[in-house]
Structure formats: structure tokens, C-alpha cells
Amino acid sequence: MHHIRRIFRYLRYYPRQLVGTVVFNLLHVVFNLSSFVLIIPFVELLFGMSEPPATEPTLAMNQHALTDWMLWHLYLLKDSWGLWRCLLTASAAYLACSLLSNVCRYMGYYCVGPIRQGMIQRLRDDIYHKITILPVSYFSSQRRGDLLSRMSNDLFDIEWSIVTSLLSIAKDPINILLFTGTLLFISPRLFLYFLLVLPPSVILIVLIGKSLKRNSTKGQRKLGDLFSNIEENISNLRVVKAFGREESQRHRFKRANADYTRTMIRVAQRRELSAPLSEVLGTIGLVGILILGGSLVLNGEMLSSVFIFFIIIFARLIPPIQSLVRAYNNLQKGDASAERFFELLDADEKIIEVADAKVMEGFDRSIEYDDVCFAYQRDDEWVPVLDHVSFRIDKGRTIALVGPSGAGKTTLVDLLPRFYDPNSGEIRVDGTPIRQLNIGSLRQQIGLVSQNCILFNDTIAHNIAFGHDHYSDEAVREAAKAAYADPFISALPEGYNTLIGDRGMMLSGGQRQRISIARALLKNPPILILDEATSALDAESEHIVQQALEQLMQGRTSIVIAHRLATIQNADEIWVMDKGRIVQRGTHSSLIQEEGLYKKLVEMQSFAS
To answer: Is the pTM of this model over 0.70?
Structure first.
């Protein structure tokens, strides 16, 4: 239950509501119990089942003395007020206790509301914050559907299973303790029998709870697989349709769905078993008490009204026990979801900002890579990507990176904004190691335009202004004009207020790319990374986007990754990468004269064209 305890640590944010919940539930139980305490003298008075004591009894804290004391004073009131007035007074007192009990019960619920919703809000905030600070490498090794399941379904299960149990945890133990204490006070002998029945019930409930947790963990894992299946099919719908795999994918989903359903049926069956089981055991206890208590009444060892009172309290004890059992099973089920939730919340950040990180105000001199190595872990093996790479890029220069797929080009540039950290070596900007820089200020100096345009389901204006809290319509329009995007945007029915759909799919590839360039222009960063920004475009779109890119690169330090070598011939220097190393450097004209990888790449593209 370690993860449950971690969830309950969030209670520290709600001390007043927590105290209010406990106090009001305590008062609810006290008033509820008080209403039943009135039953004994009420029954005695109504039916004349016993005579009052001959002399005024001394008040003492035991069942016989307390009953005699109440009977003595009630009969005095009966003599002075009359029977009907006493009955009306007792009825009014009973009604008042019942009313106060239910008012306190409502106030207990009232105080729990902010705790429940507030805890879930904080959990949701924490998990979202964690996602934003996790390195890109973490998400490369995770299935997005499973992550979505942890953030949605597991969190919902925590709310339903754990946080909803808060009221039972706050109320039912108080009910059980006070009712149990009352039973012990009324008849220790009958209470002892109750204790004999209790241990088997507890053992069975614990066994059911462990089985419930095992199946819940399995169910949550399978639901994550189900979410991944759905997400993959939606993301790759064109491929599924193009290869005619709709039916096979449907059968794959049906198998996964049926497997998950079978697991959740077992969870439901075990969860629902505990309540009837506890009720059967409670009924067995009640039957035993009826037999044992009845013999005490017949032998004159207990007043019949006291025995009736014991039976009423015992019957009232069963519902809170059942409720606590349900809460325990819910906690066991929720613990499985909490475990998966905290796996994500506890994921290693890897990209860690030092405590006294320096804020980067601007870019003045150079970017340096000093003996940088990088590898990623796949299963239990480390796969090398960059092998002792060193270079320097002076401010204002344009460097082009070319080479075969898998050479390490994208990884090389991803290290600069600290999407990853190198395994060894050091990267410096203006002489300062980037590990010592404030991450936000470092990334503020870098603009990124990639092959896969990252756009949001929002208006064109908001996508261009992404990252700016305050911007003017004129600034957005100027950035769009510089990116050659203004003509097609203005032609849209709603212009810059046009919604572009999920990932901007309502626009063409060239249009999406120009919006990405406009976004980078509005940011106006001194350092620019272009990662194959034109590789997925047709010739006409590429020509327009290339013009926009040239506009974007003016006066900036640029690192350009390109497969189409014709687009980078004007770069200040071209670096050729292969197997994680820079194997050639030079201008297009100098490299084309060498017998090396660059010349082979140029010849291959010339032949292909």
C-alpha cells in the first residue's frame, strides 16, 4: 500500500477540510448513537417493562447503573409531567438527534468535496509538469497509448478507487469504534462472541484484496495496450487502409479488447464478493448473538430492552464494516493504478538543471562541441550514435550537415537545446557549458524548423505566435509575409483565425512548413536549427519554402540538416557525417573535388534526378 500512502500525502494541502471531515463525522456518529440510546428508557416507559429503582441510583459508567439512573429520572418526569408529555419529549429528543446527525453527515460530505477534487487536480498538475520536463528520449522508448492510459484512465481509477474512499476512511472507523465500544459497554459477554466471528472475516477480506490488486494491475496494463492499439491505428490510418489491413487490425483489437474484458470481469467478481461475504458472516454473528443473548434474557441476566438495544447497535455496525471492506478493496484496486501513475511521475528526468543555473541573455561568439559521445540504451545494450565529435561554429555562420540516414545528424543538433545530454564530452555556448545554463533561457536562443511540422489544433495566428504571451496581429502578419505564407493565409475564409485541425492536417505540407518558419521568424532566435525542412515537399513547395528559409537564416547562426544537397550548396561550410563522426569538411566546390562520401552522395542524387 506504499503508493496509497503517497496519494494520501496530498492531504497535507487540506488541513482544515480534513479536520472538518473528521469532526463532523464524529458528531454524526455521536448524534446517531444518542438517538438509539433513547430507545431503552423509551421502551421501558412505554410498556412498563420494569419498575424504577426503590432509591435514587448513583450515576456510574456501567450499563446497569446508567440504565437505572435514566429510568429513575424518566419515571420522575412521568409522575410530574404525565406519560404523553414524556413520550413527546423523548420523541422530540430522538428527532433532534436524528436531524443533527444528518446535518453533520452532510457537512462531512461537504468538507470531503474540495479534498477529493483538489487532490486529483494536484495529481493532474504534477503529471503534466513531469511530462513537460522529461527528456525526449523517454518518450522515444514508451508507447504513447500507454502513457495516455496512465494519465487518463489510471488517474480516473485513482479518483474513483482511492479518493472516493476518503469518506469511508474518515467516517467508518469512527462508526465502528463507537458502536463497538457501546456493545462492549452493554454486554462484554456478547461482545466477546462478536470478536470470535471477526478474525475469519478479516482474513478472507485480505485474501480477496490481494487477488483484486493482482488482477487490477494486469487489467491496467492491458488497458494501456488497448489504448496503444487505438492510438497507433488512428495515427497510421492511411497505411492501414492503403495495405487493406482494416479487417486484420480489427481482429487484433478485438482480441486485445476481449482479453482486457476477461481480466476486468475477474476484478469485478472479486470486488463484489467481499460485501455479501461480510454480510453473511455478520448474519452468522447476529444469529449467534440472538441465541446467546436470548438465553441471558430468559435467565434474567439481562433486561429485554437492553438486549433489543444491543441487537439494534450490532445491526447498525454491519453497514460501516461493509463500507470499510469496500473501501479496502477499492484501495487495493486503486493501488495498481497508483503504481503505474507513480512509475511515470518518478521517471528519471535525466535532463537536470543545476541549482544556480546561469540565465542566457543572448548569443555572442560561438558554439563548441568538445569530444562529445552519445549512445542510447536498447534493451540491455548500448547503441553508439556519436563518437568523439568536436567542432566550433562561430556566430553568423551557416553549417550544413549531410550524410546517410543513421549517421547521427539529428542527434547532434538535438544535444544543443538539451533534448538529450551527451554521455561524455561537453557542449559550450559562448564558453559556458550548457549544463550550467538555465534550460529555458538556452532554448529561447534557439529556433527549430523540422521535417515533421509540429502544429496545434488552433488558429493559424496562435500557431505562429506559439511561445509568445503577448504579440500583435501586425507582428504575426509580418512573420507570415517573411515566410511567404501571407498569400495563402489571406485567401482562407477566416484568414489568420482559421482553425487548422489536429496537427495542422487541414493544410498542405508546404503550407504547414511555412507556418513553422513564420513561428521561428516571430521568435527571432540568434541560433537556428533546420532539420530536413524541405525533404517532404514537392518541387514547387520546396522552392517557396527554400526562399522563406533563406529569409529566416539571414543574420543568424544556422545548422542545416539536408538530404537534398542542392539546397545547401551556399552554406559557409558543409560537414559530412558517417557512423557518428564528421568525416569531411569544406565547401561544396572543394568537397566535390575530393574522392569521398560527399561526392558519392552528389553523384547518386544526380543519377537519381
So the answer is: no
